[in-house]
Please model this.
Amino acid sequence: MTQTSLQSSTAPSHQQEMVLFLHPSRGWSSLNLKELWHFRELIYFLTWRDVKVRYKQTALGAAWAILQPFLTMVVFTIFFGRLAKVPSDNVPYPIFSYTALLPWGLFTKALSDAGRSLVANRAMITKIYFPRLAIPIASVLGGLVDFALAFVVLIGMMMYYNFAPGSDYHIAVTPALATLPLFLLLSIITALGVGLWLSALNVLYRDINYVLPFITQFWLFITPVAYPASMVPGRWQLLYALNPMAGVVEGFRWALLGAQSAPGPILAVSTTIAILILVTGLFYFRRMERTFADTV
Amino acid sequence: MSDIAIRVEDLGKIYRLGSGVSGLRPRQDYRTLRETLTTRLSAPFRRLAKDDYEKDREQPAAEDEYIWALRNVSFTVRKGQVIGVIGRNGAGKSTLLKILSRITEPSEGYAEVHGRVGSLLEVGTGFHPELTGRENIYLNGAILGMKRAEIERKFDEIVDFSGVAKFIDTPVKRYSSGMYLRLAFAVAAHLEPEILVVDEVLAVGDAEFQRKCLGKMSDVAHEGRTVLFVSHNMSAILHLTEEAIVLERGNLVYRAATPEAVDYYMASGLAQIGERQWSADEIPASAAPFRPLAIRVKNRQGQVVDTIRSTEPATVEVEYALDDTIVGLRVGLYLTTARGEYVLASFDTDEKAQFERYRIRPAGRYISRCALPPDFLNEGRYVLGINASSYRIRRYFQEERALTFNVDGTDAPGSQWPEARLGPVRPRLAWQIEGDSLTGIVSDMDEGRLYDR
Model:
């Protein structure tokens, strides 16, 4: 069933040699995560390359990683916070929206980078073999550096509002903070899942290039970035949670702002959907992978 | 542990020709969603769950939309053998290497590869122009499958071999193309796979670079590793490999010791009598608006022939069409010996006045005709290549091995001695012989054929 079965995948020694069988494959392939693990250094180098190259020859450099979410936050604060008076769970609106913009930025960045990654790395794909999964995975991981930089700004903002005279905001360190890495992981799972689907589809259908900006824009509306999820009527909550980013964003707010109760049901649905997207994405990717070099 | 390194059984690879896009380039074979949706809607009985690739395979629609790049190819390579793969452009050489290095999978048959494969279908795969030489060594090494520790261990050696030590912390976008190639090859040369698969990577770079590559390749070949080596350069094939296989239109047509295989290839593989015509599907889309039609060799009488006489003038004609105006076009020939050594390169606008006159060539049909003078080429087999480019702007079309022809040496200078003359040219040079006691033997020489003409 698999394209190439590694007969003995242990490190090749002189006694035990590695035999590859190459033959036409049909149907679904195994994920072969073992081989992917073998190539972990390649994933590391590709991630490192993406990060290193990203802001080369830009005047502001890595400041862009901060400016993008920060300026979006400013615009949201003016229009949603001040003008539309969107409620913000008793937290200053800038902090409220910026907390959501962190995972959201990671997600959209990963989506557009991963979606285009295979086509952008066409030269590699047609000239050398390595597990193709390494490319979209590296694109998604590359966003973590931007995330970390933007996160520092969040801490700064929290400090500011905490100590600003007349502010009734106080940094809330709750046990929920310990769950933050899990929500980060969930956002990576979601981004990788969707990214895998889009990248594999993009090899065959370049329409994805045009669909991508639209998807992210549309997705922003159905994610509680500019508004709280509590605005969605109760009976629609579970349907709303089918968007895994809803669970991620609510989780981030819960862990960092500690204002509301844990987003239990939403989170359960979102997590399930995120894992479903990732697993189907992995299998779809592996299935399409065998023709990448011919069609990209 | 068997002593087989590679076993290939009935291997085949089919490609779908791009719809609307000419050429055998599967990479242009991407579709838009709309196309797929319409196909699917118009064929509602097909199982939607099948992906397109399988659908294609199950129902190879019109035969002419598909092309077998490789078919029914079987061979085995023993461990430590160094095998050359020769064949014309499009004969399936690269497809074979791509299958063996797992880049693409076969459509039928199977291959069995024993050992770690290192493939070198291009040097510098994954090089990023913004990264420094040092960074690219690590990146490229990882892409080629080296471990970081391994790269670290060989780092100094790689830098040494590349000869760009001074610029190792400069972004490679500032490198000259020669430096870039040297660094890229240096990384690749330090791969240590059990089986090495090499495509025409030596075709790039200057003479010194090629010499260095050949040297390294021959080291690898002598280290007892298994090597599959594709090249158009027959002298490299002869130099590096013991045995060769000849591919022709996707089939394996011959396998023998290298000198015999090269002879076979030279004698039959390219046999197209005196003329090579290009059909639409042989011209890559990237050539537009230049469209090669034919290249032919004509003798003094104007007949298209595959053998010309060394002592007579001949003509090489390149016929082509321009679908749009091209500025600064030059259409030229490469002439090489059958063994791949260059004899000359010449363009139709080499003369300055000619270049000015034909600087702008409007759309239409053209023939560029080149006169080969008499008493010019030595007897033997030659290969003509064609190149159409605008200098420093674009290369429209290039085919290094477009046509072969023979030169017959009858009556050429020195042919009274039935010995092979070295070198590709055989001009009638003016010799003068002086000697103080020469008068006595003049009469003898008068009878010799030396003074026949």
Q: What stands out?
A: Chain A has twelve helices and two strands. Chain A has one domain: 29-295. Chain A touches chain B through 49 residues (CB under 8 Å). Confidence is low (pLDDT under 50) at residues 1-15 of chain A.
